[in-house]
């Protein structure tokens, strides 16, 4: 598998338990109803987290995003913040997990009385699933990098489909990725309605020109926790940095580029629309920011 989600296989995951509605069950026994709103409609929200050196990184920010997303779609997940934390730690204890773990926490509106769109047909019991796996980025990705292709599928404003909501419905992003794959790329570079750089299909995008770090405005990209941390690191370390509206040509002429996400951290980009970027991977500013981000993670774990 290529892309920013590329990971090294770990045999321990075959026997890892899953947290499903308050029960710890083997993966092979984890089931939800065919009438679940998540299965029928993609009606739900999710959160990705990392367990690093015994600590969940940037937990408050991730929980804020989870509960804000649930509130936005009027979904009561049935757990308090502390209840979510307790569930996470119960799963880690059961699996003897302490480091290098990626977590996918998923909440749907739960089982419905009929397979249709109306949320009033939900039976009132949300489905909550936590999948925790030993999963770290493939070591080769730092020197191989990603190939991106600009695609026709656009990022959308909040009043159409809110990119800043971690919704289970990802079909528009999957369509973008498929178009990128057909173009021979690993991931898609998506534009906003005005034709400016917005986001990749699963990650946020940064590039460097003339020593300046650049990225899109917030309006049409993911509400990324790693993205926000990188921007804060740039400001704190006097790295020239600007957010704005940039045409795709600006990124094609970049000296270096990378994408950000909870799983991969900062993943270098090797080419955009078939144009190789000139810096050896990872590029010098990418290398510096990767080191700053690793130090931030270690500091967070030591708190």
What's the short version?
The protein is of the alpha+beta class and 303 residues long. The protein has eight helices and 15 strands.
Report on this model:
- It is built from eight helices and 15 strands.
- The protein is of the alpha+beta class and 303 residues long.
- Strands 7, 8, 9, 10, 11, 12, 13, 14 and 15 form a nine-stranded mixed sheet that branches.
- The longest helix is centred in the C-terminal third of the chain and has 19 residues, at 284-302.
Q: Mean of residue pLDDT? A: 96
CATH homologous superfamily heading of the largest domain: D-amino Acid Aminotransferase, subunit A, domain 2
Global outline: globular
Listing every helix as H and every strand as E from the N terminus to the C terminus, the arrangement reads EEHEEHHEEHEHEEEEHEHEEEH
Give the helix tally.
8
Which band does the percent of strand residues land in?
A: 25-35%
Task: Tell me the domain tally.
Answer: 2
Secondary structure layout:
Blueprint lengths: L16 E4 L2 E4 L10 H5 L2 E9 L2 E2 L2 H14 L8 H15 L5 E8 L18 E8 L6 H4 L1 E5 L20 H12 L4 E5 L5 E4 L3 E6 L2 E5 L8 H12 L4 E4 L3 H5 L3 E6 L3 E8 L2 E2 L7 H19 L1
Parallel strand pairs: 7-8, 7-14, 11-12
Antiparallel strand pairs: 1-2, 1-6, 3-4, 3-5, 5-6, 8-9, 10-11, 10-13, 13-14, 14-15
């Amino acid at each position: 598998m290529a892309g920013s989600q590329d990971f090294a296989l770990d045999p321990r995951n075959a026997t890892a338990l899953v947290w499903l509605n308050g029960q710890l069950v083997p993966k092979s026994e984890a089931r939800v109803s065919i009438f679940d709103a998540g299965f029928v409609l993609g009606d739900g929200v999710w959160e990705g987290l990392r367990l690093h050196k015994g600590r969940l990184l940037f937990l408050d920010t991730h929980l804020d995003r989870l509960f804000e997303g649930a509130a936005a779609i009027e979904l009561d997940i049935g757990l308090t913040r502390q209840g979510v934390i307790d569930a996470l730690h119960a799963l880690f204890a059961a699996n003897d997990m302490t480091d290098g773990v990626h977590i996918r926490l998923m909440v749907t509106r739960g089982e419905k009385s009929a397979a249709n769109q109306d949320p009033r047909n939900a039976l009132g019991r949300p489905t909550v699933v936590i999948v925790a796996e030993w999963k770290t980025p493939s070591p080769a990705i730092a020197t191989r990098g990603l190939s991106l292709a600009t695609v026709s599928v656009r990022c959308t404003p909040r009043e159409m489909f809110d990119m800043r909501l971690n919704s289970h419905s990802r079909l528009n992003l999957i369509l973008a990725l498929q178009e990128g794959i057909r173009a021979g790329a690993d991931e898609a570079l998506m534009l906003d309605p005005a034709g400016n750089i917005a986001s990749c299909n699963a990650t946020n995008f940064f590039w460097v020109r003339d020593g300046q770090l650049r990225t899109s405005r917030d309006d049409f990209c993911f509400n990324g926790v790693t993205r926000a941390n990188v921007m804060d690191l740039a400001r704190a370390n006097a790295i020239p940095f600007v957010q704005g509206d940039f045409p795709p040509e600006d990124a094609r002429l970049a000296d270096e580029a990378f994408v950000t996400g909870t799983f991969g951290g900062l993943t270098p980009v090797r080419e955009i629309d078939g144009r190789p970027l000139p810096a050896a991977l990872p590029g010098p500013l990418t290398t510096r920011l990767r080191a700053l981000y690793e130090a931030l993670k270690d500091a967070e774990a030591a708190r």
